[in-house]
Amino acid sequence: MSKSVVLTTDVTTPEQWVSSVHKPRFLKGRRVRVVEADNMPEETGIVYWIDEPEVNEHPYGIALYKEDFDPQSVRETEDHDLLVCVDCIMYIANGDLPEDRPDFEEECASRWPLASGWHINCGDEEKDEEFSWQDCDCCGSALGGSRHHAIAWKTVK
């Protein structure tokens, strides 16, 4: 199980080369899935990474410091690794809806309902599959194609 926290500040990616339009933003008051920053020396002050995998065992992602989250809000989460189609990863990453699938949002919501507390985030690119006949774990599409790693999670008591 991983954890989730409620942010007390707005958080963005620190990379200077990323334009402000494209920086992922996590707004104050939002609950986010986090990974413990046990790969960082204590003197850095980094406590968690926001749902970003480590790349080749090097730290990567958006760091959270003690002042960025409410320590009383730390909760355990239930996680599921998913392999999702291109339409789903574009929706998860950018909110883009496929024009040729009018019921797309309902297809995804029927499997991972937001009303039940489920969230889906992009996962680890190293777990992507170039081609697969496996049904999409998000929308259920049986079309063959690339599958991208994603994580479905919800807070548990």
The percent of residues in helical segments reads 10-25%
- Sheet bearing the most strands, described? 8 strands, antiparallel
The oligomeric state of the chains shown is: single chain
User: What Rg do the Cα atoms give?
Assistant: 16 Å
Number of helices: 2
How many E-type strands?
10
Tell me what you see in this structure.
- Strands 1, 4, 5, 6, 7, 8, 9 and 10 form an eight-stranded antiparallel sheet that branches. A two-stranded antiparallel sheet has the order 2-3.
- The chain contains two helices and ten strands.
- The chain folds into two domains: 2-73, no CATH class; 77-155, no CATH class.
- The termini are close together.
- By secondary structure, the chain is mainly beta.
- Helices cover 11% and strands 33% of the residues.
Layout of SSEs?
Layout: E1 2-6, E2 11-12, E3 25-26, E4 31-36, E5 46-50, E6 63-65, E7 75-84, H1 86-94, H2 104-111, E8 119-122, E9 129-132, E10 145-155
Antiparallel strand pairs: 1-4, 1-7, 2-3, 4-5, 5-6, 7-10, 8-10, 9-10
List keywords for this structure.
single chain; 157 residues; mainly beta; 8-stranded antiparallel β-sheet; two-stranded antiparallel sheet; 33% strand
How would you sum up this structure in a few lines?
The protein is mainly beta.
